[in-house]
Design a protein that fits this description.
- The complex is a heterodimer of chains A (324) and B (339).
- Chain A has 324 residues and is an alpha/beta fold.
- Chain A is 37% helix and 21% strand.
- In chain A, strands 3-2-4-5-7-6-12 form a seven-stranded mixed sheet, sandwiched between helices.
- In chain A, strand 2, helix 2 (44-48) and strand 3 form a beta-alpha-beta unit.
- Chain B has a seven-stranded parallel sheet with strand order 1-8-9-5-4-2-3, with helices on both faces.
- The chains are: A alpha/beta (324), B alpha/beta (339).
């Protein structure tokens, strides 16, 4: 075991992928000389050179589209977008090309592309760098959406994502980069399809993903002190959703709280709630509860940002409301 | 700054057999599209149908410069590009009729013709959206050391899109093997160039990205071919991206829904006098390259090919509804990509 940060685990994954396959290259704003805006790719330029660790101009649509084209041309690009808010400048390429080319071409042209980007609040970056828009992307057929919440997933999701013949969006939560923990020395690829029960429990299921996993686990710790046993499910894959794992947990606990850093309206939490209601309605002892971000553009001031985003206490009180 | 310039002149008249070939290719596109109009009226083709009648010289001229392993990215007005590239008329017509035998299995329709065999990457109906793809295809060739070229077609309307400028910059910055082919037909749907661009000299815009940019008579297939050959040769040997502004005109409305209220009838008639097919016929005749009955023979052959394509499409099958969700994701994991 070694002590590493989430950032280092992501870097190990990039390093490994660049080593394993000549077709893999990384491109994006400031990934090279600067070392990545969050220092994820620090040192990779020196190791792999400017062809394979490629700085781009500030042209999100241009370089994401170029990543799609390069994937069509036989490469395995990893495109980094600084933050999910900036990915909106590339929505045309992601939604109209990456997600549709295989279908529109009748199965002829698949797009083996990975797009990494930062998501989430908690760093006082205001309303244009802090949103959790991954739920939006889950609306789109044709792309896989991943949210690594643990060191193992930060280390292990990239390579199988590159092996996926279709486009994958990988959302790294900005508040996790400095999280530190133990990672096995032989840590490698992980399964991409299954949600995982991160903590077993019997009284309530807390469903979360990405940056909210630690909030869910924190709530479970607090609830345990009160004698409430909470099970925590980490979605990991936001599209496709592993509905079976969610439902099988809820069928056992009879209560569900969905914790989502996105806004409540039209959110991924709404989708998860709907699936629980569709498939486990008669097993529920209480309505499905949701803990989401307040419906405001993210404020800068710390106390307001904390108030806007789901906190441990919010999850605990949601569980209490269910009568668990 | 690289100057925008007239294209280098080629031979004044093509070698006779090649001239007849160019003529045949343009007639194929023209008659195919005319038949599409009939089929549209007959409700056998639906959706948007954008015709390139009048613009045939652009597609046919440029395709002469490409090799089989080069790539083509086109727009939603791409029947001509597909046919000139070698997509079969049968599979194109079947696609327009929404049949599974179509080049996109009936998933794409008129605006989304795709064909892996000829490296024809669509059929892109977001104006400007194909340019970044072309840059990426060229990046893949560059990184893998292949001397292939990606030809990217788009219209004058695309020049107003941010993706145009992002793509010009990336291609020039990274010195990528892209041949940008701007079919300037003077209208972005119904909006005239002078109503949408502060600088209407499109070659000048491309040249400002430090790439050779040539103005070409897009109604003259021989001139288009000469320019495309010269540009492609330069691109292929590491000359970086080149830009061709093909000055052309569509004789028909933007689409079947367009009443064409925004163009002056005299302007349309004026351009029709420069019909690229008539122009080539006269050119070939004037140097004695068009023998007795040869045009008639071409017309006869093309009519037969179009009849055959329609018969093929009519006899085609509809994709089973059970297949609706196929190809949202790749069925069997593997390395198969469009390269």
């Amino acid at each position: 075991m070694s002590t590493v940060t989430y950032r280092e685990a992501l870097r190990m994954a990039l390093d490994d992928a660049l080593r394993r396959d000549e077709r893999v290259f990384l491109m994006g704003e400031d990934v090279g000389r600067y070392g990545g805006c969050y220092a994820v790719s620090l040192g990779l330029l020196e190791e792999f050179g400017p062809e394979r660790v490629r700085d781009t101009p500030l042209s999100e649509s241009g370089f994401v589209g170029a990543g799609i084209g390069a994937a069509l041309g036989g490469m395995r690009p990893i495109v980094e977008i600084m933050t999910v808010n900036f990915s909106l400048l590339a929505l045309d390429q992601i939604v109209n090309n990456a997600a549709t080319l295989l279908y529109m071409s009748g199965g002829q042209f698949n797009v083996p592309l990975v797009i990494r980007m930062t998501t989430g609040a908690g760093r006082q970056l205001g309303a244009q760098h802090s949103h959790s828009l991954e739920g939006w992307y889950t609306h789109i057929p044709g792309i896989r959406i991943l949210a690594p919440a643990t060191l193992e997933d930060a280390r292990g999701m990239l390579w199988p994502a590159l092996c996926d013949p279709d486009p994958v969006l990988l959302f790294e939560h900005g508040a996790l980069y400095n999280e530190q923990g133990e990672l096995a020395d032989d840590a490698g690829s992980v399964d991409l399809d299954a949600a995982v029960v991160r903590r077993e429990g019997s009284d309530v299921t807390i469903v979360s993903y990405g940056g909210m996993l630690r909030v869910a686990l924190g709530a479970a710790d607090g609830l345990a002190e009160e004698g409430i046993s909470a099970e925590v499910v980490d979605l990991r894959s936001l599209r496709p959703l592993d509905t079976a794992t969610i439902v099988s947990s809820v069928v056992r606990t009879h209560r569900a709280v969905v914790v989502d850093e996105g806004w409540r309206t039209g959110s991924l939490s709404a989708e998860v709630s709907a699936r629980i209601v569709e498939q486990a309605f008669y097993d529920l002892d209480a309505p499905v509860a949701r803990v989401c971000t307040a419906e405001v553009p993210m404020p800068y001031a710390k106390h307001l940002e904390d108030e806007a985003t789901p906190q441990v206490r919010d999850v605990v009180s949601a569980v209490h409301m269910l009568g668990a | 700054m690289t100057e925008a310039a007239p294209a280098p002149a080629g031979a004044s008249s093509p070698e006779p057999a090649h001239g007849l070939y160019l003529l045949r290719e343009m007639v194929r596109i023209r008659r195919f599209e005319e038949r599409c109009v009939e089929l549209y009226s007959d409700m056998r083709i639906r959706g948007f149908l954008h015709l390139g009648i009048g613009e045939e010289a652009c597609a046919v001229g440029v395709m002469q410069a490409l090799n089989g392993d080069d790539a083509v990215v086109a727009t939603y007005r791409e029947h001509g590009h597909a046919l000139a590239r070698g997509v079969t008329m049968r599979s194109a017509m079947a696609e327009l009729e929404g049949k599974v035998e179509g080049c996109s299995r009936g998933r794409g329709g008129s605006m989304h013709l795709f064909d892996k065999a000829t490296r024809f990457f669509g059929g892109n109906a977001i104006v400007g959206g194909g340019l970044p793809l072309a840059v990426g295809l060229a990046l893949a060739d560059h990184m893998q050391g292949r001397s292939q070229v990606t030809a990217c077609f788009f219209g004058d309307g695309a020049v107003a899109e941010g993706e145009f400028h992002e793509s010009m910059n990336l291609a020039a910055l990274w010195h990528l093997p892209v041949l940008f082919c701007c079919e300037n037909n003077l209208y972005a749907m119904g909006t005239a160039l002078e109503s949408s661009e502060s600088e209407t000299d499109l070659s000048l815009k491309a040249a400002s990205y430090r790439m050779p940019a040539w103005e070409v008579d897009g109604m003259d297939v021989v001139a288009v071919e000469a320019a495309a050959v010269a540009a492609t040769e330069a691109v292929r040997v590491g000359g970086g991206p080149h830009f061709l502004e093909l000055r052309t005109y569509r004789f028909r409305a933007h689409s079947m829904y367009d009443p064409d209220r925004y163009r002056d009838k005299a302007e349309i008639e004026g351009w029709k006098h420069r019909d690229p097919i008539d122009h080539l016929v006269q050119q070939l005749a004037s140097v004695g390259s068009l023998g007795e009955g040869e045009l008639e023979q071409i017309e006869q052959d093309v009519d037969a090919e179009v009849d055959d394509a329609v018969a093929f499409a009519d006899a085609g099958t509809l994709e089973p509804i059970e297949d609706l969700e196929r190809f949202v994701v790749t069925e069997a994991p593997g390395p198969g990509t469009g390269s």
